[in-house]
TrEMBL record:
The keyword Transmembrane helix applies. The chain crosses the membrane at residues 89-107, 119-139, 182-199, 268-288, 300-321, 341-359, 379-398, 410-432, 460-483, 525-550, 577-596. InterPro entries: AB_hydrolase_fold. The keyword Membrane applies. Residues 216-251, 783-807 are annotated as: Disordered. Keywords: Membrane, Transmembrane, Transmembrane helix. Residues 216-226 have a biased composition (Acidic residues). This is Integral membrane protein. It comes from Streptomyces arboris. It comes from the Bacteria.
Length: 807
């Protein structure tokens, strides 16, 4: 007898419950502001991120008849992950690390170019490694060269600083020998590296270590059955979302928001690189002395340490290049031996280098400056070469799969990486120049006119001299955009008056609306500003390296002491640039200090934080932590649990950056939950910013796939919004997801319904527009039937979108 065929599973019963899950945008918001009620209760979550409801809605699922016309409202507040703590504003000092991490995610769409994608990822990670070495080298330049070597070795300088008395060379104490001064000063950059390691490890444990639910792994794809990063499921090493294989979008993979293994590997490698940089500075000075004059230190000791430093540096580079992200599965493994022994070995080598330098050398006298010039030149050349390689690879990928909306024809990632290097150079030069000026007193370091110390490396002075030139070049596109915006605003006047007809025209009101709309359109021109600045930075940086290498002197320093016109101009550029570098660094420090004390400033800086730290730390482990690795699993887990429990309809409603989190969370849902979810986005940068800058993850193909997989989607936008915009998905017979541009302001002048002047809302308060409630109601209708009203109404049947795919 043949076995009985089991009946097909019955579809889940719709209880009639409906939920709107609100997700706020950048800058943060309180549950009371999001829900419009001072009485709220926490449903689930902790003090960092949680879901809240109105007190009266705490058990709304038990009484669905009360919410027939509108859903139960929940608010997911994630501001505690970002700008909630003022101390996190100090992460702005590590802004280059955050920027280079963004460059990793900006690669163009790839179609089967596995080797090119891997090369791009390796190049970005090497640029990130160079920034760690650059920051550590800057700390070594200040602590070892300027303070311990130059100032402590010059009686005129150390005599002005009482705290340097025990290090002064003319005191003749135990610490007066140059090697021992360097050994003591090496603790400063070593402590900086240790602090970065601690912050990276602590923030990972606090924010990014929350593993997603196992139930969310149902859509994972692992083509070769392994978790290794070299499998076809890894976009950074062997595959990509647009590969010829039937792989899901990258943001739907179960391991995308959990990069524990890679972050741990990168943290170990970068920590080791920092310790090795400090050891190289200490060993370089001692070795140069031992080679020039006889020393009592056994030569074999120094050779062994130098060989070990080179070997350990090679291991660091190998670790950086060996593997990238593993996204096809959630990678819970940790390379314990590597994480433990690599930084520990580098720290041990630093200890040996310090002992070697502190060996007694009575004949050793410090003069001039340490040999850091070559190190800074090689770093600058290496960064420029890596950026060029990134540009060639990115351009090749773009030509293979061109997308017209991609920024700078695929060169957005290399341009941003170049900006990260420029920011690192500005911060490095700013610290070195300001400390040198402070130590030198009334003199100008390196200029020979009243200066008592040599000052920082010549390359930093040359880099400072090109900053005024860069600012002058930047004035050209800025003036062009200013003129074009003014003309565009004038042309908008008649259209705005016709839009609000038959209300009588008001020239002042028209000009204000037109100016705001024209200014909001400037966001679309930002890529070209970035491209111009990056190209000019690359060319001027190469010129600065060539000039410092050829002359070996500070620009504008005439050999005969007489300043010719050209030398005077060069000296003026160098002085102005040096001042601007120092001023820029002071702004970084002052901004972080002000944000720590001032809530409004903390909110403004928090916007930069929120946009820059959406992506996981895939290139630099010392970048600010990724809040999405906690927020996206939170949202996906909440939606999955609620739909499974209630079998009801759910709308996830995201504003601004919250819309990006909402879309990423929907991507992570299994099919069973996604069928009951509708997506409502407003003021969303999902295509205008993310789709253009990150085409491999939010480009036209991934967004079209999201539209087809989610049950229904609406996107609201305004012409006055400088951040949000349309999604630009319009495929026949699908009418698309965009609804707009919404009218802003709602009324041109005074009306009977609105007797007071209406504000121009721009990016805020989309719920105030009546269209918002209509589109939310339409989404609920598409998701399924409602409960009948009490009194005998027939249950509404059918769905408007029965022909749409549910994923």
């Amino acid at each position: 007898m043949a076995p009985a065929i089991p009946p097909p599973p019955r579809p889940p019963q719709n209880t009639g419950a409906a939920l709107e899950l609100l997700v706020h945008g950048v800058g943060g918001a309180t549950p009371q502001e999001m829900l419009g009620d001072p009485r709220t209760v926490r449903v689930t979550g902790d003090a960092t991120a949680a879901v809240y409801r109105r007190t009266e809605d705490a058990h709304g699922e038990k009484h669905p008849e009360r919410y027939r016309d509108e859903p139960v409202a929940e608010a997911y507040c994630w501001s505690g992950l970002t700008s909630g703590n003022g101390s996190r504003a100090l992460w702005l000092l590590l802004l280059p690390f955050m920027v280079v991490n963004l460059a990793h995610w900006m690669r163009p769409t790839a179609a089967g170019r596995t080797r090119a994608v891997r090369l791009y990822g390796v190049a970005v990670r090497l640029v990130a490694l160079s920034l760690t070495v650059l920051l550590t080298a800057a700390a070594c330049e200040v602590a070892l060269d300027l303070v311990a070597w130059q100032c402590a070795g010059t009686p005129d300088c150390s005599g002005r600083r009482s705290w340097l008395g025990f290090l002064s060379s003319h005191q003749g104490g135990w610490w007066s020998q140059p090697g021992r001064r360097l050994a003591l000063a090496a603790t400063v950059p070593a402590a900086l590296v240790g602090l970065l390691w601690y912050l990276s490890n602590r923030t990972w444990s606090a924010y990014e270590s929350q593993s997603p639910l196992d139930a969310l792994d149902g859509d994972g794809y692992d083509p070769d059955g392994t978790e290794e990063a070299h499998g076809p499921g890894d976009p950074d090493n062997a595959d990509d979302p647009e590969s010829a294989r039937p792989v899901p979008p990258a943001l739907s993979r179960p391991g995308f928001w959990y990069g524990r293994r890679l972050v741990a590997r990168l943290r170990a490698a970068h920590t080791a690189a920092g310790f090795l940089t400090v050891a190289a500075f200490v060993m370089g000075a001692a070795t140069l002395h031992d080679r020039s004059v006889g020393s009592s230190v056994p030569p074999v000791f120094g050779l062994v340490i130098q060989g070990a430093l080179v070997l350990c540096a090679m291991v660091v580079v190998w670790v950086i290049c060996r593997r990238g992200r593993s996204e096809s599965v959630r990678d819970n493994r940790v390379d314990g031996a590597l994480i433990t022994y690599l930084p520990g070995s580098a720290l041990a080598l630093l200890g040996l280098a310090v002992v070697h330098a502190a060996w007694s050398r009575p004949e050793w006298v410090s003069s001039g400056s340490l040999s850091g010039e070559t190190a800074f030149r090689l770093l600058a050349l290496g960064q420029g070469l890596l950026v060029v390689i990134m540009a060639l690879v990115a351009r090749s990928l773009y030509r293979r799969t061109p997308e017209p909306r991609t920024t700078l024809y695929g060169l957005g990632g290399p341009s941003v990486a170049m900006l990260a290097c420029a920011l690192g150079g500005v911060m490095t030069g700013g610290v070195a120049q300001r400390v040198a000026d402070w130590l030198d007193g009334p003199g100008t370091p390196g200029m020979g006119r009243g200066s008592i110390i040599e000052g920082p490396p010549v390359l930093l002075s040359w880099q400072a001299s090109v900053i005024p030139v860069l600012l002058l070049l930047l004035l050209v596109p800025v003036l062009f955009l200013t003129v074009r915006t003014a003309r565009r605003a004038r042309r908008m006047g008649p259209d705005i008056e016709a839009e609000y007809a038959p209300e009588p025209p008001d020239p002042a009101r028209t000009r204000r609306i037109a100016r705001i709309r024209a200014t909001a359109a400037l966001t679309d021109s930002a890529p070209w500003i970035v491209g111009v600045v990056s190209a000019a930075t690359l060319l001027l940086g190469a010129a600065a390296v060539a000039g410092s290498w050829a002359s070996g002197e500070v620009p504008g320093l005439a050999t005969d002491g007489a300043a010719a016109p050209v030398e005077s101009l060069a000296e003026a550029a160098q002085s102005t640039g040096s001042w601007l570098i120092g001023f820029g660094f002071i702004l970084f420090v002052a901004g972080g200090r002000r944000a720590y004390r001032d809530a409004s400033a903390r909110r403004t800086i928090g916007i930069l934080w929120d946009v820059g730290t959406f992506w996981p730390r895939a290139a630099h482990p010392f970048a600010p932590p990724c809040y999405a690795e906690r927020a996206v699993p939170d949202l996906a887990s909440r939606m999955c649990a609620w739909t499974a429990t209630t079998k009801g309809r759910l709308i996830i409603s995201g504003h601004s950056q919250g819309s990006v989190l909402a879309a990423a969370a929907v991507w992570q849902l299994p099919d069973s939950a996604r069928r009951r979810v509708g997506l409502l986005t407003y003021g969303s940068p999902i295509e205008r910013l993310y789709g253009r800058w990150f085409p491999a993850y939010f480009g036209a193909v991934p967004l079209l796939g999201l539209n087809r997989s989610v049950h229904c989607w609406r996107n609201l936008f305004r012409a006055t919004d400088p951040i949000g915009g349309p999604v630009r998905l319009s495929t026949d017979p699908d009418p698309g997801v965009d609804r707009g541009p919404l009218k802003d302001p709602l009324a041109y002048g005074r009306t009977t319904a609105l007797p007071l002047p209406e504000p121009i809302l721009g990016h805020s308060d989309y719920q105030a527009d009546p269209v918002f409630a209509k589109e939310r109601a339409a989404l609920l209708e598409e998701l399924g039937p409602r409960l009948p009203r009490q009194g005998g109404d027939v249950l509404e049947k059918g769905q408007k979108s029965s022909g749409r795919s549910s994923g």
